[in-house]
Amino acid sequence: MKTIALADYNIHVGDFQGPLNLFLEQSAYSQIFIIVDENTREYCYPILLEKTNLENHSLIEIRSGEQHKNIHTCSHIWKKMMDAKADRKVLVINLGGGVIGDMGGFCAATYKRGVDFIQIPTTLLSDVDSSIGSKLGIDFADVKNSIGLFKNPKAVFIDPVFLKTLPLREIRSGLAEIIKHGLIADKKLWDEIKDIDNLQEVDWNSLIIPSLEIKKRVVEIDPYEQNIRKTLNFGHTIGHAIESWALQSTAPLTHGEAIAAGMVCETYLSTEVRNLSDAEAEEVASYILKIYGKYSVKNEYFSDLLRLMKNDKKNANGQINFTMLDCLGSAVIDQHCEEKQVEDSLIYYAKL
Amino acid sequence: MKTIALADYNIHVGDFQGPLNLFLEQSAYSQIFIIVDENTREYCYPILLEKTNLENHSLIEIRSGEQHKNIHTCSHIWKKMMDAKADRKVLVINLGGGVIGDMGGFCAATYKRGVDFIQIPTTLLSDVDSSIGSKLGIDFADVKNSIGLFKNPKAVFIDPVFLKTLPLREIRSGLAEIIKHGLIADKKLWDEIKDIDNLQEVDWNSLIIPSLEIKKRVVEIDPYEQNIRKTLNFGHTIGHAIESWALQSTAPLTHGEAIAAGMVCETYLSTEVRNLSDAEAEEVASYILKIYGKYSVKNEYFSDLLRLMKNDKKNANGQINFTMLDCLGSAVIDQHCEEKQVEDSLIYYAKL
Prior knowledge:
The structure is a homodimer. By secondary structure, the first copy, chain A, is of the alpha/beta class. Chain A is built from 14 helices and eleven strands. In chain A, a hairpin with a 2-residue loop joins strand 10 (322-327) and strand 11 (330-335). The mean pLDDT of chain A is 94. Chain A binds chain B through residues 30, 71, 74-75, 78-79, 82, 85, 87-89, 109-114, 135, 137, 140-141, 143, 145-150, 224, 310-311, 313, 315-318, and chain B through 30, 71, 74-75, 78-79, 82, 85, 87-89, 109-114, 135, 137, 140-141, 143, 145-150, 224, 310-311, 313-318.
């Protein structure tokens, strides 16, 4: 059991039973709502009930998947809370991956101008990514996370017990963010990761904790993404565009698969715009391809992908904003390049 | 020209030309969006353009009226911003009454997790009410302001020039909030108001400024409505219910008309639950009836009205929460009463 303390809430890593029961005992909520999807209802909700004293609560079920992270699902959640006469003293428990954490948090933060919520991430991705940093929101007009806000949860409970309920593809998706944390800030973590061959034999806590420590350091210095927090966007400018694009295709990618491809492209850009060596770029590309395989990014997708990148929240004054690497373990923010170079990076990836 | 300084923004009361141009010169926004409705586009937008150097900007027009203060209109606003490739460095100018201020502010506060906005209220109601206090939001599931958040604008510009564009009914609507400020916190202000017979001959700044000073004092002590800010809810528990009810009828009321009726009812409750004298209650009722006339609240509406009150944000633990008066100029929060007494207050109003 490890507790990571942030300014006004704690992240508990390990068995949630003790700390969650203590949290509930010390609170006096008028009602408790648990948000689940069909998967977390089946695999995670029973574990939650077994370990806690959550006698009276209401379950709000939404459909799983990024395609449901939208304003219609928010209306469904708000309506359920309204119908149950939820007042301002209720607690919302988000039991699920990033979609539930981001959207359930957004709904809680805007219901009657804000009620308390806690995050119980159930995927490796949400363990190391959305569980920390207080970004809440939904997708809108085909752009990921384009509507939302920043607000801290009351607590986060990260328990590896839930990882056992996940398919391997979901584990791979989460690993991409851990890789990112290593590449932007912790060469030692990256060296540890690149020795992993078998994802079924990993002691996840030993990767989750350093990964959270990196993210904590960054978001505490820069909660609203004015500067250093942008390092966390490495791989995400191109990765988000690929993810949005794939979402509309017949073969959607997981977030991590898209970000993995984005990291390869942006590693290439780092050799063009910054001084990252070709050898370092190859080290990254070859590990990522070993774990993730390759997504087919054809030339005819390029204009769509560029359009999506231009609509990215991270941009300012019409320029596409990138985070790049100066070496493995060190990132630099607010980088720009020619559109041609972005296309070159996609060609580089396609030719690997 | 008077400037009221809050912790992190200023409210300028008087001619906006100087302070708004200065604000714009000192900023470096990538784009400017002005939100208007068909009325403020016709009557207020030309005044804004004439007095400022707003050369490049995009206009977003929405339909006027509380019935459009909903998530569909938000989607329209977000979509317009997205289509214009608005990044995080844009400014949103909300040029209108409370609907535009609350909803435009909510859209700005959630677009790409938050962009800057300023409020230029154009009605007396928004001058003294929504312009200060940072409550943003929309109506949802027939409940007013049930989705929203707290966020400060970058600045507020209150200029009486816009009041000349308003019909008398809108002026009366705003006066209700000034009456409320007097009743809850400033006997002197109340005494001044109750001498007003002709609403067309009022020096509004002399009422707006003390009214804003009262609201400022309250929201600075208690920004998130944990305690003293609830005094501002006087008249609003029953008033909101009447307003929501009327909104669905063929004869909708303005916010102020509904709150005026609510204040009469809650003044009656203050004589029942607190020690307000019958003479004081009569003084309030007779002035309000003189200005607002009487809305027909029939017995058969009572169950609907009670249902709406029970769904009010201000409630906790299933009890309807009221702010009441101990005397004219002094309010007390978190008061409760029997449902029967609420009905009695409606009967009292109906029989006046």
